[in-house]
User: What shape does this take?
Amino acid sequence: MAVSASPLARELEDDVLDRFLRYVRIDTQAAYGSRTYPSRLEQLDLSRLLAAELRALGLDDVELTEHGYVLATLEPVEADDAPTVGLIAHVDTSPDAPGANVDPQVWRGYDGGELALPGNPEQVLSPETSSLLRERVGHDIVTSDGTTLLGADDKAGVAEIMAAVAYLVAHPDAPRPRVRIAFTVDEEVGRGADHFDLERYGADFAYTLDGQTVGEIENETFSAFELEVTFRGRVVHPGTAKDKLVNAVKLAADFLSRLPRDGLSPETTEGREGFVHPHRIAGAAEEVAIHLIIRDFDWARLEQHAALVERLAQDTVAGVAGASVEFARRVQYRNMRETLERYPRIIEAAEEAVRRVGLEPTRGSIRGGTDGTLLTEMGLPTPNVFTGGNEYHSVREWISVQDMAIAAATVVELVRVWAEPGRGS
Assistant: This one.
């Protein structure tokens, strides 16, 4: 992708980069298994900053809710009959890689070669392994130093919304609808919508800024189960354990070895293929709990994947005296496509905004989920808009400044599209 020829995007580059660099330096990692909300209270540091910045822009109704959400209103201009449009991004980052003390690196005018990250030179970004990086010669690339994730998921979305809102406030010459902004917490641990009050939010529909590929509007996500498999054994002193000890660690290892190796896993699937992913494990000889995430676009296949896991676990303990296994299954989210297909104009408006910044829109399916997946199920249709990020949840995460700017420009155009006569009817 050539450096953006969109004048609006070029105008937004400096602001979106400044905001992004400010936000990623704040530690907002979510945490699995926490009993607080948000799961780590450090997330509120960024929430408070965003609330202050929105107030400084002059927005109305800015509030930091009791659950850590930031809500605000951008009032309409000459568009009294337009719908209320929501813009959403999440402040938290993934627990799957180190996330504290992020030291962002800006590589100006990328020349197409390898980027050895300075904090860990073994981490090298290469156009040979990333076709998208190869396409961004001339762009300004932002990475971490290689010891932490960058936080583009989803601080790029946060920065893009903030830059777009700042632009709209500074340019009140064009009609715009009422816009409701929301920054959520704990999306990365599947709890971003736990306390989201749709009536309090007051949007007719919304868009999450939480995608990746530039120009892509996503109207479909995986459906998802969370499955915890707990093996229990029988513990005695190892010195007198003959014919008595049943080691839960070995049961867990046996079970994991039974999972499919040539398919049905994240490392062997792509496109519309689902997977079973053992994600975390904890325990000792007496008891071991394995946490798995199970994903598929089709609900019936999702059920089949879960049934396979449970059968393999039962087979593991079958005939082993003193061994047992228990299951705890939770539905995390459902594919949002069926609901969104009832609201085609919401997707079409996003695609029109993409065209207005000089790109050809594409539709995509997310091999994961977003806050929008849950909000759509709750009754707020919420497709996903690109941010430009790459290699999320890893220390190799990177993003182009120009891609962030064109995403912010797309948000500006999207807001303006909804102010046009007849668009909301």
User: Anything to note?
Assistant: The mean pLDDT is 96. The chain has two domains: 7-221+335-417, 223-333. DSSP finds eleven helices and 17 strands in the chain.
